[in-house]
Amino acid sequence: MPNQQNHEDDPIRISCYNAARQRYGDDVPEAVISRLEEELQHIVRNGFSDPYIVAARIVDKANADGFTMAIRGSVGSSIVAYLLGITEVNPLPPHYQCLECRHVEWAADAVDSGFDLPSELCAKCGGKFVGDGHRIPYQTFFGADGNTSPNIDLYTAWEYEEHANNELNYQMHNSIWRSGIPVPDIIPHNAASVLKRVHTLTGIDPRSIPMNDPKALSLFRSTDAIGVTPDQIKSKVATYGIPEMGIGPVRDMLQMTQPSSFSELVQISGLSHGVGTWDGNARERIQEGAGTLRTSIACRDQLMMDLMKFGVDMETAYSITVSKRKDLPIAESVEAMLESKVPAWYMESYRKVRYLFPKSHAVSYVISAVRYAFYKLHFPMEFYAAYFSVHGIDVDMELCTRGERDIRNSPEEVRPEGYHTLQGMAPEKALQEMALELALEMNARGMRIRKSSHAGGRYVVESELYGTLEIPFIARQQSHRVI
């Protein structure tokens, strides 16, 4: 076992090893111990334990209260954060884990996400195997020397924001906080609110949803699974209402690349959030048949891992990745890549990139997107009810009660290209277009929205007749929510 630097009794170390044994069995695999020790030595040495411990307590309290939390920030690439339950993103290489005997089998290098592994039974005990792991190095956020302070943003439902902040304040009151170490941020988000409501309506916990459901994944490349045609909903993919995946440009990416796996959706997320990554770069290579989603430079962590595969040493690969993240001059980077014989096509693509999205963020976003897709496919009325419960307050729902023809011919007509992000568009305009897209889709699926006599409150009320949503009409309010 690696040197633990006489910190065996540190609370964060004890918690992590307890969690590791619970997840991987008493005989924790060496690959898990090695990664855990690397991170713990940096965290404990630099006095960074408190943000992890406080965040873990906040997430534990939220889970106990029936709310899930998503994470954005540097610790999304941390095995410590994963074992403490702060993040659902496991940064280890893809692997199988038996839910019965805890036996672990590591996947081949060609596998990019453990969520892509097919359902199997454990060869050791016959128990159920589950896949996990996304191959994310900690250096891209912690720094090559591990001295970068952790950054923890916790996304929660709007209705839980006050409770989460109260818990944060309570935890901070009972901690001795070192100066200069960032405090976890609580950020309310519509996606968390929608998932909470659909969880309540269906009884299906978002955390129990499989990430490799073929039918749910098919929504990202076709409309077949929801029983409509592209002409009916003016889209060739069924991602209306799914965070990050419903906007026009991303639907174009999905249509062209036809992703069929979780890892390919992570590439889509990275490419769509990057700058200089898709148009004029990956898009053209894929169209020409010269590249694929998998070979495209989509995330900053992938850049570092690719360079190391090409023979660049870790410190240089990290330095090149940091230079690209900060959009610094690339002359030295190119020289180092030439010396390591990085392929010419890769260097050309690298030169065009101006910003790369963190892979841990992309994985977190796709986890949420797949959950939306699962509910939308298997529990459509509950999904639409939850969606409009959260978003309906911000739009003119009158338009959404009209039939398919009226929605198509309204002044706010749903356009085939869809809305194109909030940049250059008023938030209320984007919200209205999203609502109309969902209303059009509902009609195409044989479902309706109608006015209700229900008074008070802003929530969508499900009718006794399954297939119709009743909406309490109230005065529209301006909202500044993240959508």
UniProtKB/TrEMBL annotation:
What residue stretches are annotated with the Bacterial DNA polymerase III alpha subunit NTPase domain? 13-162
Kindly give the InterPro entries that the UniProt entry links to this protein. Answer: DNA_pol3_alpha_NTPase_dom, DNA_pol3_finger, DnaE2/DnaE/PolC, PolC_middle_finger_sf
**Record key words, sorted:** DNA replication, DNA-directed DNA polymerase, Nucleotidyltransferase, Transferase
Does the record bear Nucleotidyltransferase in its keywords?
A: yes
Source domain of life is: Bacteria
Gene3D superfamilies named among the record's database cross-references: 1.10.150.870, 6.10.140.1510, PolC, middle finger domain
Q: Where is the DNA polymerase III alpha subunit finger domain?
A: 199-291
Q: Name one Pfam family in it.
A: DNA_pol3_finger
Presence of keyword Transferase: yes
Transmembrane ranges, per UniProt, are none
The name on file for this protein is: DNA-directed DNA polymerase
User: Which species does this protein come from?
Assistant: Paenibacillus spongiae
